[in-house]
Amino acid sequence: MTEILVQAATGEQAPPVTRVVEHPAWPVLKDAVERIRPWQTKDGSIDFTAEGAPARADAEAVLRQVADAVEELSPLLPHDRAYHEALVKDLKRWADGGFEVPDFLDSLLAFQPAKGRADGLQHLVVFPMYTQNGNPDRNLEAVVLRMVWPEWLAELERTRYDNPLFCGIKFEDFTAGYDTNSAVLFPETIAVREAPERFSWGGIFCDREAARFRRVTDAAVGILGLELPEDVAAMVHDQTRCEEAFVLWDMVHDRTHSHGDLPFDPFMIKQRQPFWMYGLEELRCDLTAFKEAVKLEAEGVSQARDVQFAVLFDRMFRFPVTGERVRNYDGLGGQLLFAYLHKHDVVRWTDNQLHIDWQRAPQVTNQLCAEIEDLYRAGIDRPKLVHWFAAYGLVSQYLAPHPGSRWAKGPDALDLTQPPRKLVDDVLPDEFPLSMFYEALSKKLKTVIASTRGITAESAERIAA
What we know:
Layout: H1 25-36, H2 56-73, H3 81-96, H4 105-110, E1 122-129, E2 139-147, H5 151-159, E3 166-174, E4 184-185, E5 202-205, H6 206-224, H7 230-236, H8 239-256, H9 275-298, H10 302-318, H11 329-343, E6 347-350, E7 353-356, H12 361-379, H13 384-396, H14 420-423, H15 436-450, H16 457-464
Parallel strand pairs: 3-5
Antiparallel strand pairs: 1-2, 2-3, 4-5, 6-7
């Protein structure tokens, strides 16, 4: 990798800078992006007639700082040269066009991180984009990241879990859109004139997932009085182990969206279905990762046991009590997993203490995965609405629907002359409310979960120290 020499204040040469975030141009770029973001509207454009808007010349000057900084940093990242050249052109075209709705399709197509996956490889990414579970507006963002692609993971991808588009990644630094709960970098979020025919990569920040998991799990274990096996307790306090667990979990989860019977597109929300369908799909992918981890553990893959506990604890402790209760499909999946294990006597809540049957947990968790897979397999022969009701039946077998639900009353309570997508309007925002167990847990974990906003491995360690 190219090394950039920075002059020290004495005029002597300082040691070579190889990390983007240590180069003087990075804080300049970051500051310029942060100045632009408040000027932008929801679609990413800048309305120069709005109150508080800058003069166009001022916006152009700040955007030039962004472009100049990218050019200064690019030699550190020769593998991204084509992307950075296209990025500078897109920035210039945005300014020349009067800062209307941004279009960064050319630079998006030039950015191909999945084609050169190498552990520790840096990328400097600048795009107008929204951040999923973060900022809903298409603001300009800048993020420096590193690939997480150890040889053991690369070997599993080559030989068992083919996923050529998946990128495990870690944060180095970021602008405000990532000082949120967002833990993904997806091309679908970027402002472009037209969506590409197909996307060629997708990144998930395993360091944020691991740090968030560790903080919430540690708090939940203490609140619930759960006694962890010694090796599991050690894993929860080990950032590296958790990152390795999450990157393996994410890789298998991601590919599962396009494998099996009746798979969904990962961006399912566009398909206009009841939110329990999204919840079942995300849970199916997680439980597939769990099932594969059980197999891998038997074959001696050291990270596989950690994956199982990451899935169980994140799904049961964090997902149900995170976010709003409006169509919270990830929360629903966590509720379903807990209820299923509880009703099969794997999880017990007695005397204000949680007990888990560690020996039966893998078998019964895989059993739930099989039930969801059977639902999908049978769904191939069903009309859409019949499949939705079958899925509702599976969920409501373990979770109590809201007493005011029309769907809970069955087909006779709905106007079946309407197309299925219209019947989605009859789904309550919180169709399956939290149980009393989760209502109590939510109150006790609320502050902890809020504290994970913008978390990184480094910030988690600083607070722990």
